[in-house]
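Human: Can I borrow your eye for a moment on a structure tokenisation matter? Separate attempts, laid side by side, tell us more than any discussion would. Could you pick a protein and write out its sequence and tokenised fold? No explanation is needed for now; the record alone will do.

Assistant:
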Amino acid sequence: MIDLKLREVKKDLSAKELAVAEFIQSHVQELKNISIQALAKLNHVSTSTILRLCSKMGYSGFSDFKIDLISSAPKKLTTEILQDDINLNDSIQDVNCKVQAMEKSSIDETHSIVNLKALDQAIDLIINSNKMVIFGVGSSGLVGKELEYQLIKIKKDVNCHFDTHISRNIVSSLDSNDLIIIISHSGETPECVELLKLAQTLTIPSIAITKMGQSQVSSLANIVLHTTSMEHASRLIPIRSKISQISVVNMLLTNLFIRKYDAHLFEQTQNREKRKYPRKHSSVKSI
């Protein structure tokens, strides 16, 4: 977990923070009983540098970081195959194996960095909101469409449009009792940043599903649900980021459906089963 979080935010670190991060990665076992002052002294930095590093990794403070450090299992992620891009001369079997490895790794890493408190708060916001706008560009927009479709099942008033102008007009009509959900892998998508700034001006609560690390999207949103950021910018098919976003959406929806499970959802489940297995239910009825 520590290694993963450090890897995710590495490019957002200052020179001093990066030096501390690399020191931590090399001395994980020895640091379990260290104080923030001792860690700062060993790296010739101030304690504020350590606290900034902890914040960028998603921790509320050094104590929160130490808890995760102590509970982290001393095992190294096996990512050798993931360091190689899929080659044009790869066989179908090789391509399939690499895709499978990417998908598995993305799911495992996404679940390992999930912030349960943020997830719980996001579920509360969705339940209590009157209207919702979901927005994302490209494949993120397609993930948003899936989220929209599932939220309609629990009778939420939700819109997910690919057109920025339509989304902006709808967001302009919302208020503090509503919600905007932004999905952006990079966290720097201009359209997403623009909508979040508009939401902030109108005091509309916001949720962002975006990669770990500092970004305009994560700094503007009220609640951030992190996805993994190990995606090459040159990749034509965003396998890792898309799978990570879907994993977050599935966690969000499953917990949401459990909380909202009522007679209406039970009836939906029963009707779906009847449509799928009509003979089974007709025979039961005749008995």
Observations:
- The chain has 14 helices and five strands.
- Confidence is low (pLDDT under 50) at residues 73-84.
- The longest strand covers residues 131-136.
